[in-house]
Design a protein that fits this description.
With 337 residues, the chain is of the alpha/beta class. The protein is built from eleven helices and twelve strands. It binds ligand PBG.
């Protein structure tokens, strides 16, 4: 080819040809800054009552609600493929939901039975459980409600007791996703006072009032119950200073790890938190993020595996130590090959 650009003096580039480190696979492998392994991934599992039950979630393609026996199998497989922890979500049946979230305090509820059975059958895998009340309230809000106001301290009291039941049942990590003020401190002291000082807290410190939770709400049955929104407790998605204040507060109250959620639209928040706090940061690739990739891939708009790996690696690049993802098992299997 003719040197059309020969008239330009490129000598200034001699020490700055950045493409040298991208010219072939082996050098790219050496200089790669982040890698994705199955240990980075936490698998969320939706539970239902019964035996050998597997039910479809319309807006979460290829993800199923599982009865405990099937969840045990999934946990075994996940561990075998390198996933180190699972996050359990066990919504109460609609007829057990009420205004006081009473099922949250039933020591024999679905989540407690699941925790104890999975703990006894698959003791090697870490168990993370949520204490937000949206799985138990008749209105699908994360706290108790009176005159359309979400009650803070009353909700915290129930969640702290619920956390204790979950710890007794076998939870290794309590993960409050509710965004009530003071819940981390209340859970910490309740656990400590009852001999569960080794149960850790992963606080959803920066949980945004997001539009990306739709499929999750379908999965747990709160979508149709929920009136209004969650903006009096979840964060305004216009803010990130406020997320830093939430994290600071949760650390002061005793959080061991913190969660930023959703994930991909909030990479800036993950990076800010990683730069500022010396604490493991988790990110949640939420249900809407999962469904976007699924629907796009189904319609031929993108290469599915590539898009999944790229989005998961983005979390790591931003500073997350682990990622909750509905792709955890699928990706762990693929990463093993
Ligand atoms: C409930 C909870 C939600 C999610 C996790 N825990 C939904 C919500 O706050 O309405 C969403 C997770 C997802 O979308 O995958 N507190």
């Amino acid at each position: 080819m003719d040197k059309i650009f020969a008239k330009y003096d490129m000598s200034f580039l001699s020490g700055k040809r950045l493409r040298r480190l991208r010219q072939n696979e082996w050098i790219r492998d050496i200089v790669r800054e982040n890698i994705l392994t199955p240990k980075d991934l936490i698998l969320p599992i939706f539970l239902i009552e019964g035996k050998n039950q597997k039910s479809k979630i319309k807006t979460l393609p290829n993800i199923f609600r599982l009865s405990i026996d099937l969840a045990i199998k999934q946990a075994e497989l996940a561990y075998e493929k390198g996933v180190r922890a699972i996050a359990l979500f066990a919504a109460a049946d609609e007829n057990k939901r009420d205004a006081t979230a009473s099922e949250a305090l039933n020591a024999d509820n679905l989540i407690c039975r699941a925790l104890s059975e999975i703990k006894s059958k698959v003791p090697q895998i870490g168990l993370i459980s949520d204490v937000a009340l949206d799985l138990y309230t008749s209105h699908g809000q994360d706290g108790l409600m009176e005159n359309n106001i979400i009650l803070n301290d009353e909700s915290v009291e129930i969640m702290a007791q619920s956390a204790l039941l979950q710890a007794k049942a076998g939870a290794d990590i309590i993960a409050p996703s509710d965004m009530m003020d003071g819940r981390v401190g209340a859970i910490r002291s309740t656990l400590d006072d009852n001999g569960y000082e080794n149960v850790a807290i992963l606080s959803y410190s920066a949980k945004y009032a997001s539009n990306f939770y739709g499929p999750f709400r379908e999965a747990v049955g709160s979508a149709k119950l929920l009136k209004g929104d969650k903006r009096t407790y979840q964060l305004d998605f216009a803010n990130s200073d406020e997320a830093m204040r939430e994290i600071e507060q949760d650390l002061a109250e005793g959080a061991d790890m913190i969660m930023i959620k959703p994930g991909l639209p909030y990479l800036d928040v993950i990076r800010r938190a990683a730069d500022r706090f010396n604490i493991p940061i988790f990110a949640y690739q939420v249900s809407g993020e999962y469904s976007m990739i699924e629907y796009a891939a189904q319609n031929g708009a993108l290469n599915k595996d590539g898009a999944i790996i790229e989005s998961l690696l983005a979390f790591k690049r931003a500073g997350a130590m682990a990622i909750f993802s509905y792709y955890a098992l699928e990706m762990a299997i693929k990463l093993n090959d």
